[in-house]
Amino acid sequence: EITINLTEHYITHVGDPGNFYYIDDNYVLWGSGGNEYGQLGQGIQDYEFHSEGLKIAESVIHVDYSQKGFVIFLTNDHKLYGVGNAGSGALGQYEEFDWTRYTNGENYAETTPILLMEDVAYANCGRDDIVCLKNDGTVWTWGYNNAGNCGVADFSVVRKPTMVAKEVTMVWTNLAIDNYPQPEKEQFEMAWTGDI
Asked: Do residues 85 and 109 touch, judged by C-beta distance below 8 A?
C-alpha cells in the first residue's frame, strides 16, 4: 500500500514577476504585486503594483498561482477558493468558450475569493484550468481545455468540475516541462500526466 503525507507537498510560497503569494506561520495568505484582475482578493481591481503584502484569507494551508491572473487556495477545512481572472472559465463557469472573454480577462474578474469546491485534499492550477484531488481519491478538473489538458474530449471550456480519475494518491502537474521532478511509477499509485 502506498501512503503519502500530502501536507509535505503543500505549496506555501508561489509567484512570478507579477505576483507573489505566501502563507505565514499563522496560516494567513498574503499577496503582493499586480491587481489588474483583482487577484489580490481585496474586492477591487486596480493597476498599482502592491509591494507590501495584502491579507487575502486566514486558515490557509496550500496556495497555487496560475500565472494567468488567478490564484487558488485551500483552507484547513478542505475548502478550495479562487480569486482573480475568470476569463478562462476556471473561476467563473461559462457555458462555452468565448475568445473575447478569454483575451479580456480584466473584464471578467472575481475580486473576492469564491468557493470552488469542498472536501479537497490537494489542488493545482495551470495557466487556464484547475485540477483537484478530493479526500475520496477522485480527481476533478475544469477550465479552458484547448489541449485536452482537463482530461476530457471536449476541447473548449470544461464549465463545471468534472471527475476524470479515481483511486488517486497524488496529483502532479507539468511532469515533463522545465525540468520539474517526475514521480517514479514505483513510488506513486498514479501521477497526473497532462500539461495542466
From this structure: yes
